[in-house]
């Protein structure tokens, strides 16, 4: 089997760092069933392609199988179905050859593993029981654009029809580790067969490899059943553990400081929370969403792109308000997009509401023609999750390429952090924040961006203000 991975990220040769395979070398890796080769058909700054080619050795397969005690079938050692479980063999090779890349590690470029890249994966002959429709159903919920064309049994004899193999191309903007995990898990699922005995440790292997996306996949039961060879005991265990993990993730999201559902434990003058239950303020997250909606309406923005929409909190509010004619939600995490779909119950929405809504994976630091044509772009608690070295790319995408009439940016006010008990001095509200700006730092960034791209900017506080430190959230409203 053959798989090529093509990147157009600049410089595209960063792919070599992520895969831990040098573009100038051809490398071979012995497997118990053959040999896997990694090489680069092309390696330039604008486009780089890595190829993984697996050559199976029937004699190696026989040696790996061990002794066969089959008095009724003397040729059992030589006639078996393992050479035909090509997808399973290939998945094992992917896991072995790209082990470090699958774990999302890159010491030479530590920022790369967490960055979604424009990728194209091509497998010219991959077995799939269920045809092209099955490939679409498995990969599209993960953020891929899928092209799956059946491979004919014999091109010279079209009447023979198609084989069960597909010429499969996956295109999308994802982290390389996620892309590899999709292939590693789903290739054996497409084939419906494995070349080895499925034991209890296979449950751990599945949940570890698909941790970030399987719980939200609409076909997770089918994936789990096929991956575990339909062994009922293992399937029940995996299903129970998936349900427990999803429940824990939901609780963690509800308790996440980034959502700021809890009031500060200590505050300066004017910031103490009301003690009376009737007078208690709404959570900061709710105040923030309400403030954004008020600004959008004041600007007359009826077509809105929520860039970094998460699980769809703001999208849900806009979709429920007839003022907004088109609502687009985009997030770098395909898992978050899937959760947003579930939250909004997209399949059950009335047709008029479904026509107003678009949800798809995407990144704020890569140009996308689908970002254009909106009256406003919202970056609600997004910029602080972007590496400062990548902010220039975000600015070009949002203010230069998409160029809406209005851009609404909210971000934590670092000065207010002194009011959060347990937060160390200089600490940040969330472990994924790359930075948190003071009011002066935010204004410095906003004024520079506004001047460079032809906007003017005004500032609004969100949440109860403290006389010394200001409000917990700061908002910048950019208008043409």
From TrEMBL:
<dbReference type="InterPro" id="IPR029063">
    <property type="entry name" value="SAM-dependent_MTases_sf"/>
</dbReference>
<dbReference type="Pfam" id="PF13489">
    <property type="entry name" value="Methyltransf_23"/>
</dbReference>
<dbReference type="Pfam" id="PF12623">
    <property type="entry name" value="Hen1_L"/>
</dbReference>
<dbReference type="GO" id="GO:0003723">
    <property type="term" value="F:RNA binding"/>
</dbReference>
<keyword id="KW-0808">Transferase</keyword>
<feature type="domain" description="Hen1 N-terminal">
    <location>
        <begin position="1"/>
        <end position="243"/>
    </location>
</feature>
<comment type="similarity">
    <text>Belongs to the methyltransferase superfamily. HEN1 family.</text>
</comment>
<keyword id="KW-0479">Metal-binding</keyword>
<dbReference type="InterPro" id="IPR026610">
    <property type="entry name" value="Hen1"/>
</dbReference>
<keyword id="KW-0943">RNA-mediated gene silencing</keyword>
<keyword id="KW-0949">S-adenosyl-L-methionine</keyword>
<dbReference type="InterPro" id="IPR024026">
    <property type="entry name" value="3'-RNA_MeTfrase_Hen1_bac"/>
</dbReference>
<dbReference type="GO" id="GO:0001510">
    <property type="term" value="P:RNA methylation"/>
</dbReference>
<protein>
    <recommendedName>
        <fullName>Small RNA 2'-O-methyltransferase</fullName>
        <ecNumber>2.1.1.386</ecNumber>
    </recommendedName>
</protein>
<dbReference type="GO" id="GO:0031047">
    <property type="term" value="P:regulatory ncRNA-mediated gene silencing"/>
</dbReference>
<dbReference type="InterPro" id="IPR024740">
    <property type="entry name" value="Hen1_N"/>
</dbReference>
<keyword id="KW-0460">Magnesium</keyword>
<dbReference type="GO" id="GO:0046872">
    <property type="term" value="F:metal ion binding"/>
</dbReference>
<feature type="compositionally biased region" description="Acidic residues">
    <location>
        <begin position="249"/>
        <end position="258"/>
    </location>
</feature>
<feature type="region of interest" description="Disordered">
    <location>
        <begin position="245"/>
        <end position="283"/>
    </location>
</feature>
<dbReference type="InterPro" id="IPR038546">
    <property type="entry name" value="Hen1_N_sf"/>
</dbReference>
<keyword id="KW-0489">Methyltransferase</keyword>
<keyword id="KW-0694">RNA-binding</keyword>
<feature type="compositionally biased region" description="Low complexity">
    <location>
        <begin position="265"/>
        <end position="275"/>
    </location>
</feature>
<dbReference type="GO" id="GO:0090486">
    <property type="term" value="F:small RNA 2'-O-methyltransferase activity"/>
</dbReference>
């Amino acid at each position: 089997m053959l798989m090529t991975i093509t990147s157009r990220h600049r410089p595209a040769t960063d792919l070599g760092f992520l895969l831990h395979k040098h573009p100038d070398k051809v490398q071979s890796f012995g497997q118990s069933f053959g040999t896997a080769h990694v090489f680069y058909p092309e390696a330039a700054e604008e486009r780089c392609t890595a190829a993984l080619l697996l050559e199976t050795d029937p004699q190696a397969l026989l040696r790996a199988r061990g002794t066969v005690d089959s008095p009724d079938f003397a040729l059992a050692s030589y006639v078996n179905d393992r050479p035909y479980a090509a997808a399973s063999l290939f998945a094992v090779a992917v896991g072995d050859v790209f082990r470090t890349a699958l774990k999302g590690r890159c010491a030479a470029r530590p920022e790369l593993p967490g960055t979604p890249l424009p990728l194209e994966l091509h497998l010219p002959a991959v077995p799939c029981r269920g045809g092209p429709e099955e490939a679409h159903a498995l990969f599209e919920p993960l953020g891929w654009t899928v092209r799956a064309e059946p491979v004919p049994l014999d091109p010279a004899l079209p009447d023979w029809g198609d084989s069960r193999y597909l010429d499969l191309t996956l295109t999308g903007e994802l982290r390389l580790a996620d892309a590899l995990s999709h292939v590693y898990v789903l290739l054996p699922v497409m084939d419906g067969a494995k070349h080895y005995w499925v034991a209890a440790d296979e449950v751990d292997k599945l949940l570890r490899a698909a941790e970030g996306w399987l719980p939200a996949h609409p076909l997770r039961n089918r994936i789990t059943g096929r991956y575990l060879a339909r062994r009922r005991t293992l399937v029940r265990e995996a299903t129970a553990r998936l349900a427990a993990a999803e429940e824990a993730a939901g609780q963690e999201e509800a308790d996440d400081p980034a959502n700021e559902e809890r009031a500060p434990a200590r505050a300066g003058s004017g910031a103490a929370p009301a003690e009376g239950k009737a007078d208690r303020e709404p959570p900061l997250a709710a105040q923030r969403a309400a403030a954004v909606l008020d600004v959008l309406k004041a600007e007359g923005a009826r077509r809105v792109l929520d860039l970094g929409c998460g699980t769809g909190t703001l999208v849900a509010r806009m979709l429920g308000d007839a003022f907004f004619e088109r609502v687009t939600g985009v997030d770098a995490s395909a898992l978050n997009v899937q959760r947003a779909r579930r939250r909004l119950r997209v399949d059950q929405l009335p047709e008029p509401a479904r026509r107003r809504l678009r949800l798809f994976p995407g990144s704020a630091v890569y140009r996308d023609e689908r970002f254009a044509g909106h009256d406003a772009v919202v970056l609600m608690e997004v910029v602080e999750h972007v590496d400062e070295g990548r902010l220039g790319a975000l600015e070009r995408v949002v203010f230069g390429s998409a160029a809406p009439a209005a851009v609404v940016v909210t971000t934590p006010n670092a000065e207010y952090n002194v009011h959060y008990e347990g937060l160390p001095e200089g600490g940040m509200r969330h472990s994924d924040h790359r930075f948190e700006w003071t009011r002066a730092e935010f204004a410095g960034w906003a004024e520079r961006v506004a001047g460079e791209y032809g906007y003017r900017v005004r500032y609004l506080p969100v949440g109860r203000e403290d006389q010394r430190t200001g409000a917990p959230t700061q908002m910048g409203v950019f208008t043409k």
